[in-house]
Amino acid sequence: MRKIFMDNSLPILDRLDRRILRVLQDDAGLSNLELAERVGLSATPCARRVKRLVTEGVITHQAAMVDPKKLGLNLTAHISVTMDRHTPDRFEAFEETVLSLPEVVDCCVVTGQSADYLLKAVVRDMAHYEQFLLGKLTRIPGVTGVHSSFELRRVVTRTAVSVPEE
Known about the structure:
By secondary structure, this protein is an alpha+beta fold.
């Protein structure tokens, strides 16, 4: 039987697993048959490998990339948020609220700067951003500071992570 995890709890990925990950990150919409052909496997072993990668949490989800501008969402803001207290309850409440805000497409807890969180919000325009900022974000209990920067032009948009070689 194949050992699934090494001592550091990382799944063991062979050459074919890594190839599957690279191909799926490029196009998650491939059928299993198309994927199998691209990685040099037959359909059934390929499907088994993908299922294992999902079960082991290597593949967390698959999604369609949407161009926000095609939906009238023309402004992207990067927002630093500072909290009043650094307590688990305060952070949990903030994170729960942020999860419910459809404008927020990314949220990270950060260190090494004055902010506690970095958010990325996508909105129609500056008026929509103002409504989001004043009507939602700054009303979250504990938010004491917000600093916004706006994208002028996106240089790189990448969802794929570099899959290390064996």
